């Protein structure tokens, strides 16, 4: 099947938002920080869920190596470099141990290993390091959405398929919530939300599928818990142009006729990507001249947005995007 044309979608004007300009511009930096925390925490807590007697081998080990290889290539900003170094170190450790990995060997690899601006402590006690999220599940969804945008910098002809397969592999092997894992794999393998109709190179389609799944999970969990069904994400306040019938999704519809594809894609790009990250990758790779300063806008934006969010949260409760109930 031919890939959906992404150029016309990605060049549209960004959707209007009810957020302040400062907060809106800072959101990618906040999401990047949360994604980095999620990576560190998952590596510290989830790697040996499928291990036996403290040893990882076979398919779970192969998936770990593929996951780190992928993050080392795709993760935005400066975070890809420490992950790539960890990936190289992991390959060496596994090769020297007959294609096995012990808990002790991996803990040694992770010692004092942070990720860009996030310190190693976040892998053990992450709560103090979340910026927009309030828990790991939110951070993990943020990581997936971030990768769906960062993967556009690759030249792979199967970038969309690779993204979704890596996400599936992570959930199957390294996500600790068995209930959540079962539901996600059932949806993925059962081609829910037309996943199996996506072309291998359809990154926009893959990004939309993750967005649909995120909403589907949030609404399902709220219903199962007997809570009030939240409005789908993004809210009309955050993206005035995204929805044709937001209430339809809230009531169980999953039709593509209920939302505006181009507006959702523009929203995801605005929320989870930044031109500065591409620039920073070149800087870290040595592609910039020695007298050019490293971009600092992302750091400033992160600090400003963190302060703004604290002010907002002091006056209202968390919305569904910041909660960490089950697999939402």
Account of the protein in words:
Its cofactor is FAD. Keywords: Disulfide bond, FAD, Flavoprotein, Oxidoreductase, Signal. Pfam families: Evr1_Alr. It catalyses: 2 R'C(R)SH + O2 = R'C(R)S-S(R)CR' + H2O2. GO terms for molecular function: flavin-dependent sulfhydryl oxidase activity; protein disulfide isomerase activity. This protein has helices spanning 7-10, 21-45, 58-74, 80-95, 103-110, 136-150, 159-174, 178-189, 203-224, 246-250, 261-272, 275-284, 297-315, and strands at 55-57, 100-102. The protein has 13 helices and 2 strands. Mean pLDDT is 84; it is low at 1-14, 282-299 and 312-327. The protein has one domain (7-123, 132-272). Strands 1-2 form a two-stranded antiparallel ribbon. With 328 residues, it is mainly alpha-helical. The chain is globular and about 55 Å long. It starts with 6 loop residues before the first helix and ends in a 13-residue tail after the last helix.
Low-confidence stretches: 1-14, 282-299, 312-327
Strand adjacency order, main sheet: 1-2
Instruction: Compute the number of structural domains.
Output: 1
Order of helices and strands: HHEHHEHHHHHHHHH
Radius of gyration: 19 Å
Number of strands: 2
Query: What is the mean pLDDT?
Result: 84
What is the helical fraction, as a range of percent?
55-70%
Strand content: under 5%
What is the makeup of the main sheet?
Answer: 2 strands, antiparallel
Shape: globular
What is the overall number of helices? Answer: 13
User: What class do helices, strands and sheet pairing give?
Assistant: mainly alpha
Alpha carbon gap, first and last residue: 31 Å
